[in-house]
Amino acid sequence: MTTLKIVNLHVSVEGKEILKGLNLTVRTGEFHAIMGPNGTGKSTLSQTIMGHPAYEVTSGHIYMDDQDLAELSVDARARAGLFLAMQYPSEIQGVTNAEFMRAAINARRPEDDPINVMDFINKLDEKREFLSMSEEMAERYLNEGFSGGEKKRNEVLQMMMIEPKIAILDEIDSGLDIDALKVVSRGVNEMRSDDFGTLMITHYQRLLTYIVPDFVHVMMDGRIVKTGGAELAQKLESEGYAGLRNELGIDAHLTDEDANSYFVEG
Amino acid sequence: MNKTVELDMPIFPKVRYSGWHLDEIEPSLAEVKERHYINDQAFGIEVNGQATAYQHVPDALTAQGVRVMSMLKAQALCPELLSQYVGQVIPATTDRLVAQNFHYFNTGIFVYIPDDTQVDDVLQLALNHVATQGQDMMARIVIYVGRRVKLSIFQQMHTLGEVKSKASVVIEIIAATSAQVTYANVDAFSDVTTAYINRQALVTEHATVNWENASFNDGNVITQLESHLRAEGATSHAEVIALSSKKQVQGIMTTVENSGRHSVGHIFQRGVILNRSKLVFNGIGRIIKGAKGADAQQESRVLMLSRRARGDANPLLLIDENDVTAGHAASVGQIDENQMYYLMSRGISKKIARKLVIRGFMGEVLAKMPTKFAQQLIIDEIERKLQDENETS
Question: Which ranges does the record mark as transmembrane (chain A) (predicted)?
Fold first, then answer.
């Protein structure tokens, strides 16, 4: 079993404190969801775990088992078993999707023992078909000219190819129509095992009807303010974040409060 | 070299090359008879020094009058045809280096494709500098593409041998009415070759010449790339990628001149600079009076990957007509950190991620190379130059 443990995490971006003492533990075998209003630090959390250089940890720790991630570069964190499905994946022309994924897999193997090409192709074909992706996508340039939905599928495809221990899915549902959402969810559910845990970040309860979480956490103002089971997401759907904030007596301004619409990305 | 000294040397802004002595060239008679860079059965020719190491034209094309031969053979077999085109795109009196090449070239390639010829395969041209004796290469390539012909060319240049010497290569392309030409090249001279390369195309009515120019030389080089859009609807996209490393200097000047109405000339350049090397992109869009409805655009971007690298991207628009559209963009910057982060977040090491990002930066031109071999050649050259970078830094 692998455990991702976040202890009293404080993070600043360009001098502004975004995360203000966040605690969270995710174990392999568990599906977690983090929900929360816009501007509350959900994406900051995911980028910080992965090690994005723009996010500065001012205090607190993130551990993978006994390893303090502060000591690991981005690529070393990935090789230690972390994966981040990004909200805005980069496009890289001149590098094919297949070549990129093979490089990612080989990065986890000894330099003199790269994955057998046929094994790689067979695995890619299998996962690709599972996600209803066309054959030509393997030879297309990485995310280049991909639609929003194709990019999300491609993130999930990479996850299935790399087989991380803990995957953070940052708004994997945004911009997806219902059919694409079902496909993406099928991919994530297929990964469910004792050796895989996930932390899903989402605005929408909708995603959680397809990927049922074991734990739901609500984030506000840089902290987790409430944790429950899958039913908590349904409660939020009907009462909104403002209701929960008032119930908990938290003094936090919700970015979209004025517009009274917490479910639209700003 | 008396015929040439009264002319001026060509002007390459921001590149000092007078110490390279490119106007003091001793044409070499050396030759290498073995083929190195063209696959068997390919449609094309490999010329190494004065030797033809490979030559193949499908019978069906020969029957239609297609000629692909060494310059020496053309001078012997079809001197009249050849003389109609040599010096037609670049007048012999243009400057000292052009004149020197015009008067003294003693090798090269001649290509003649008659009107309406259907050509299915990519035409492959390899011209290699034989650097075994210390004399220099003085070569000219002349290509005539007939009316309505659609042709894709892949040209490469390498160095065979290890004796320091020079190369002067002038390439002229004539695209007749409605011809569609893609000219892709990989220049990959080694560090013993100091080179002057001048490629120019004459683009006539409704014809197109698109350049996919990859400058991956290791030595000091000045390269001129120019399209003359001489008539109504002539089009040229000049796309250039370049990678400089170690202590070399590569100066690249890309020019599109719109004199035809509704002519379209776009320049797109991407360069990467490693170690202590220097890379200069000069882009010139010139619109001549009377070229109504002409379009001239250019974009040049340079990535500097070392503190000691020196780079420049100088756009210039010279417009002498009101009824036109034109624009330019240029930048000198660092590697895209978001792309690096994305690749590394998948476990890919910084070193490999950097290589992939550099390839991506050049991806637009890489993608347009006409053969898999050409694409792989560029990928390998990037790899090799980055490998060298680690050894020298």
Answer: none
